[in-house]
Design a protein that fits this description.
- This protein is of the alpha+beta class.
- The protein has one domain: RNA polymerase, RBP11-like subunit (Gyrase A, domain 2).
- The chain contains 2 helices and 4 strands, in the order E-E-H-E-E-H.
- Strands 1-2-4-3 form a 4-stranded antiparallel beta sheet.
- The longest helix has 26 residues.
Length: about 90
């Protein structure tokens, strides 16, 4: 997996992701769009053969896009851990 910072501003961050499944990025997008301080979180597949994804996060007011992104990633990670625990318990 490769992540490049494509653009950055006070309320804006744009990343270029390569080698990651779109479903994971889509899940992050959904989590972020539920936050009040997020104006827009979106992802699109810029090149399907190269598996390149452009991810954009725009925040409202004084909300730092970096901090909001970190919070969203933490929530996504916790959701994955919870899912794993439930499935492991089910399979015992």
């Amino acid at each position: 997996m490769e992540v490049k910072l494509a653009a950055k501003g006070p309320n804006y961050i744009e990343l270029e992701l390569t080698g990651i499944d779109f479903g994971i990025v889509g899940s992050l997008q959904e989590i972020l769009n539920n936050y009040n301080e997020v104006e827009y979180a979106g992802a699109n597949l810029t090149h399907p053969l190269l598996n390149k994804i452009r991810f954009v996060l725009r925040t409202r007011g004084d909300s730092s896009p970096e901090e909001v992104l970190e919070r969203g990633l933490s929530e996504l990670s916790q959701t994955a851990k919870n899912l794993r625990a439930v499935i492991e318990e089910l399979l015992r």
